[in-house]
Amino acid sequence: MEGIIPKLARQRKRRLERIAGRSKDGSLRTRYLIIVNLADGRTPSDVAACQNVSRTTVYRVAERFREFDEVGLIDRREENGDRKLTEDYLSQLLAVVASSPQEHGWPRPTWTQEMLMQTMEKKTGVAVSRATMSNALHAIGARRGRPKPTVRCPWSAQRRNKRLGEISQLIETLADDEVAVYEDEVDIHLNPKIGPDWMAPGQQKEVITPGQNAKRYLAGALDAVTGEVIWVEGEQKRSLLFIRLLWELHQHYPRAKKIHVILDNYSIHSTEQVRQSLATEAGRRIQLHFLPPYCPDHNKIERTWQDLHANVTRNHACSEIADLMRQVRAYLNRRNKTSRAEYALAA
Question: Does the predicted TM-score (pTM) go above 0.70?
Answer without folding.
Answer: no
